[in-house]
Amino acid sequence: NLRLGFRCNQDCHFCWQSRGWPDPPDELHFVWLEEMHQHGVKQLVITGGEPSLFKGFVELLLLAKEKYGMRTMVQTNATTLKNPRYLKRIQGAKVDRLFISFHSADEEISDRMTRAPRTFALTVAGIENALRAGIRVGLNCVVERDNYQGLAEQARFIVERFVKAFPENPIESMNYSRPQHYFDEEKWIEQLLPLDLIYPHLKQAIEILGEEEVLIDVTAGSCGLPACLLRFQTDLIYLPREEEMGMADPMHSQSGRAHTVCSKCSLFSNCQGPGEQYHQLFGDRGLVAFTEPVVISHDFPLTL
User: Fold this and answer.
1) Dist. CA 92–CA 230, nearest whole Å
2) CA 271, CA 186: separation in Å to the nearest integer?
3) Tell me, what's the pLDDT at 33?
4) Which pairs with CB-CB distance under 8 Å and at least 24 residues apart come from 21-26?
5) Number of Cβ atoms within 10 Å of the Cβ of 120
6) Alpha-carbon separation of residue 113 from 121, 202, 262, 275 (angstroms)
7) What CA–CA distance (Å, rounded) separates 80 from 89?
8) Quick one: pLDDT at residue 249?
9) CA atoms within 13 A on the CB side of 157
């Protein structure tokens, strides 16, 4: 990950960053990129804040690709991609993939979550422009109290607008993430909700997207949701190896979850669980232990 800074044209209440944190000098981005190359990095994710707002962003992408031979992905809200001229610059930098935040198909809910009025339409237009341009696109949705009831509606929207409308280059993946520690901790506690409430809506959304062969990522990343949310279709479970655990929450440790229902689960050593704060608020509610061995994949089938 090459994080350019914390500046953003949205102000998502679920973000762990402060908008007041200072950004590093622009020239330091190029120093970091060179250091990554020296350490053998082959796959680069450029993130922020909103990376497209930073000076030298496109130049960094092109340098990573042409000088260092890296594969590149950008984490973005896609609002700047509504501008055809900017999109053309991204194309010219030969970016391999965009990972775009898309948290609701309801404009009012989306703009409330991002605290950026009228940016929902910009994101939708940016996604469509990227797909039209032939760029690989994956979407990410943080599942919280504001949007969980609309997950199925969101899936139908995705199918109609981003899959069927672009048969030559549909979106290739949908990622569902658990809410990490928000910068506004009070808001974080307010937005957390029990997994048994999420389950039926998430299940329906996954089934809708699965019919269109959209790749589903629920458990794989450091923000992954518990594997038991995929108990209806265990072949969708991708988990890190035990030595790769502990990226996001101290409750990932076995000792931290020893007195939870997770300790009785056959995936205990690999699944990240719901996080410490969840256990404090809801105990074991909504968690279901796998009592028999589950055949899962450690190698997520979507890479750069």
Assistant:
1) 39
2) 27
3) 98
4) 23/49, 23/54, 26/54, 26/55, 26/56
5) 23
6) 14, 18, 30, 21
7) 11
8) 58
9) 16
* Phi, psi angles (nearest 5°) of residue 98: -115, 135
User: What residues have CB less than 8 Å from 106, skipping those under 6 apart?
Assistant: 147, 150, 153, 154
Q: How many helices (H) and strands (E) does the chain have?
A: 9, 7
Q: What is the DSSP letter of 159?
A: I
Residues of the chain scoring pLDDT < 70: 242-255, 298, 301-304
Residues whose CB falls within 8 Å of the CB of residue 90, separated by 6 or more in sequence, listed in order? 52, 58, 61, 74, 81, 130, 135
Angle, CA 229 vertex, CA 227 and CA 231 arms, to 5°: 80
Cα separation, 137 vs 152, whole angstroms:
20
CA dihedral (294, 299, 301, 303) positive or negative = positive
Task: Give pLDDT, residue 275.
Answer: 86
DSSP, residue by residue, 182-223: -SSHHHHHHH---HHHHHHHHHHHHHHHHTTT-EEESSSSTT
**pLDDT value at residue 258:** 80
Could you tell me the sign of the dihedral formed by the alpha carbons of 265, 266, 269, 273, in that order?
negative
Nearest to 98 by CA among 106, 90, 89: 90
- Residue-level pLDDT at 40: 97
Distance CA 114, CA 82 (A): 17
Query: Can you give the C-alpha Rg of the chain in angstroms?
Result: 19
Q: What pLDDT is recorded for position 259? A: 86
